[in-house]
Amino acid sequence: MDASLLVPWDERLTAYDFGHDHPLAPVRVELTMRLARDLGVLDAPEVLLAPVPAAPDEVLELVHAPEYIHAVKNVAHVPQSERARFGLGTDDNPLFPGMHEASALVVGASVAAADAVWSGAAGHAANMAGGLHHAMRAHASGFCLYNDVAIAIARLLEQGATRVAYVDIDAHHGDGVQAAFYNDPRVLTISVHEHPSTLFPGTGLAQECGGPDAQGMAVNLALPAGTRDAHWLRAFEAVVPPLLSAFDPQILVTQHGCDSHALDPLAHLMLSVDGQRLAAEALHRLAHEHAGGRWLLFGGGGYAVVEVVPRIWTHVLAEAAHRPIPPRTETPEQWRVFAAERSGRLAPLTMSDGQHPELRLWVDGFNPADPIDREVLATRRAVFPHHGLDILF
To answer: DSSP E strands: which ranges in the chain?
Structure first.
């Protein structure tokens, strides 16, 4: 393999911008790349930054309807009724100049990353500007215009992959990716998210487990609002590793939305940067244990744009580069100055929240009074039998 970690990158990726007051602020990606560079992650010899090609229509059509792509391209001339049908021009998905071009560039970066890993040009590849997991075939949703993750997976299938595992740890259900492959037995989708009773998009219960030809291939672990590091990690370990072991994927695709953090203004989980870092470590380990080291990773949600997103995504990139950053590492002073200039907010002093989560395993016992344990058991009951796995409890 030519590079341990390929990172398709172009400053134009920050043009995916819904406007000043929108939660999905592109400065979070800018600050991530600057922090990763200032900490030496992107300058490591095993890391290659590559140019980003925009995805052509035929690539977008791997997932999206041609009439939807046409509407995004020509949105200024699309009647309001048609915009509404396609989910364009809403509060979540407002119009902005060059929205097709910006979105196609994000997809192009994700597809380039997928191609690199599948071909063996890189062991791992990351597009932190990607992870737009809510977009549907003919409908924008949840800040997502084109579903770069689903398109990258479809590209892998087109290239000959027959077993692709996708793990989504965003606080929001990965509904768009699930929908794209709900009846496709070649793709295992696992989403670990906040319970739909308290968070958009209102889907992702354990009972959503795949179409008639793919029973057990859609996996949903919906955790109660307020879930903290140790309980989140216990739930993750109870569901994700056994399924990946049973499925034996050829490649692991992961989405690292970090809106599960306690400071996130849109979601209600209570993870720390330290818990999220441990999740990235676990996914890296699982890629090597069950996917021959092939790991394709994306950003996603995350709306504490200075306090959280740059730190956790820099940890993710460092993990993928096989150069993990010690939690107590100080953030570089020049980065803190840059963050203040770009955002008007004070940046964190270290790469840690000072938490040390202790992992209690599922085999240690089931507590029927614990709502988190009940959700874990519901997920295991819904999908484990389809994979020949013991539900246990």
So the answer is: 3-8, 47-50, 122-127, 164-168, 187-194, 218-223, 251-255, 295-298
- Residue 253 has phi, psi (to 5 degrees) of -110, 130
How many structural domains is the chain composed of? 1
User: What is each CA distance from 133 to 94, 109, 149, 251, 269, in whole angstroms?
Assistant: 17, 15, 6, 18, 19
Kindly give, in sequence order, each residue whose CB lies less than 8 Å from that of residue 36, ignoring residues fewer than 6 positions away. 42, 313, 314, 317, 318
Is residue 393 assigned to a domain? Answer: no
Instruction: Decide: 187 and 140 in contact? Cβ < 8 Å.
Output: no
Which structure tokens are listed for 10? 């172009």
Please check whether residue 202 lies inside any domain of the structure: yes
β-pairing, 251-255 vs 164-168, is: parallel
Estimate to the nearest angstrom the gap between the alpha carbon of 262 and the chain centroid.
Answer: 18
pLDDT band at 2, cuts 50/70/90?
low
Residues serving a catalytic function are 134
Q: Which of 13-22, 261-270, 352-361, 367-376 has the lowest mean pLDDT?
A: 352-361
Three-class secondary structure of residue 19 per DSSP: coil
Q: What is the CATH number of the domain that holds 224?
A: 3.40.800.20
Query: Tens of pLDDT along 112-147?
Result: 999 999 999 999 999 999 999 999 999 999 999 999
